[in-house]
Design a protein that fits this description.
351 residues, Rossmann fold, 2 domains, seven-stranded mixed sheet, six-stranded parallel sheet, 10 helices, 19% strand, globular
Length: 351
């Protein structure tokens, strides 16, 4: 764990220097604005940033990133105006926190094209915004299914803030565990389920996860940015394991056995490719909300050999269940208002 934390610090410094180098130029055509995280968060912001870098470097387009001074809509709007003042024609905005500020800027700068990731704007029909959502319930399903198939019966779901994406991940996790338990004829699978109310690591989360481990929890799906570090600290002490989120987080720590992923980098590259193929405007994509999932290859769990740490559940078995979801043979509800109906597993929803 200490090696992982040291590696994170090195990566932070490295990415920070790269960003500083970018900031020495005059103007930047594509600008990513972070929400409350950094481009080195090994999660949502970083994956989106890597999509910007991949597209821009391959197509000789200038690019940079900007971080708001504080977690407010006003600060986000000011930061977007700063980016536009430095030449941005395209804004990439990852995260639900841009719900209100994206609409404000879209109306103020009609010629600036906005890629809004993981949320929709507060006002519909803005032709210079293309919004991308994900079927997180599918990724969560694959994670829960894999955990039970691998032999875990005492599961935990640690959510951050109970925003729709986090809720869909959690509900999908429950449905995946339920589906696997039914297939295997199990009736003793248990899930502890809790939203921490934060995306940042803290002592309260670590203590809660340690308590779960003491009560027998074997694997925790840590869904929410930096809270994975609290889960990992507890897992190290208790010799348990963790499931990552949003991207392949296996490099964070050997205890991460898999990750419920959204292929954010691919989605950003695909969107920017479509934008520039249309002459730099969204065209028919303007005002559209795209919901990406297994069918388009935008969600799943990692299958690379270095990331696959499941011992009893195989890649071939995963591919088989993925095909069923992709083909619509297994329907996974995106409902965030009602908890999933279960018969084979027991879920302890905690306050």
């Amino acid at each position: 764990m200490r090696k992982s934390i040291a590696l994170l610090l090195v990566l932070t410094l490295t990415l920070g220097m790269g960003a500083a180098a970018l900031a020495q130029g005059d103007t930047y055509e594509i600008a990513l604005v972070t929400d409350v995280g950094n481009i080195d968060d090994r999660s949502f912001n970083q994956a989106s940033w890597e999509g910007v870098v991949e597209y821009a470097t391959a197509n000789d387009v200038t690019y940079s990133y900007y971080k708001p001074s504080e977690d407010t809509n006003l600060a986000r709007e000011e930061t977007m105006r700063e980016a536009i003042g430095k030449g941005a024609k395209v804004l990439v905005l990852p995260g639900f926190l841009f719900f209100e500020s994206a609409a404000v800027i879209a109306k103020e700068f009609a010629d600036v094209q906005i890629l809004l990731i993981d949320t929709t704007p507060a006002e519909e029909g803005l032709q210079n915004i293309y919004s991308v959502l994900y079927q997180e319930e599918q990724s969560g399903f694959f994670a829960g299914y894999a955990a039970v198939k691998d032999g875990y019966k005492k599961l935990g779901y640690l959510g951050g803030m109970a925003v729709p994406a986090v809720v869909r991940y959690g509900h999908g996790y429950v449905m995946g565990a339920e589906y696997a338990a039914q297939e295997m004829g199990l009736t003793d699978v248990e899930i502890k389920y809790w939203y921490s109310g934060s995306f940042l690591p803290n002592d309260e989360i670590k203590i809660k996860m340690s308590g779960w481990a003491t009560e027998g929890t074997e694997v925790v799906f840590a869904c929410g940015g930096g809270i994975v570090w609290s889960a990992l600290l507890a897992a190290e002490e208790a010799d348990t394991v963790v499931i990552g989120v949003d991207v392949d987080q296996s490099s964070l720590d050997p205890r991460i056995i898999t990750s419920a992923m959204k292929h954010l980098q691919k989605s950003v590259v695909d969107a920017l490719t479509a934008l520039y193929a249309n002459g730099g405007t969204w065209g028919e994509l303007g005002g559209i909300v795209a919901t990406l999932g297994a069918e388009s290859g935008d969600v799943g769990i990692p299958t690379a050999p270095e990331s696959w740490r499941l011992k009893n559940f195989t890649v071939d078995e995963y591919n088989a269940i993925f095909e069923k979801v992709m083909a619509g043979e297994i329907e996974i509800s995106p409902d965030v208002e009602n908890t999933p109906a279960v018969t084979a597993v027991t879920v302890d929803y905690q306050e």
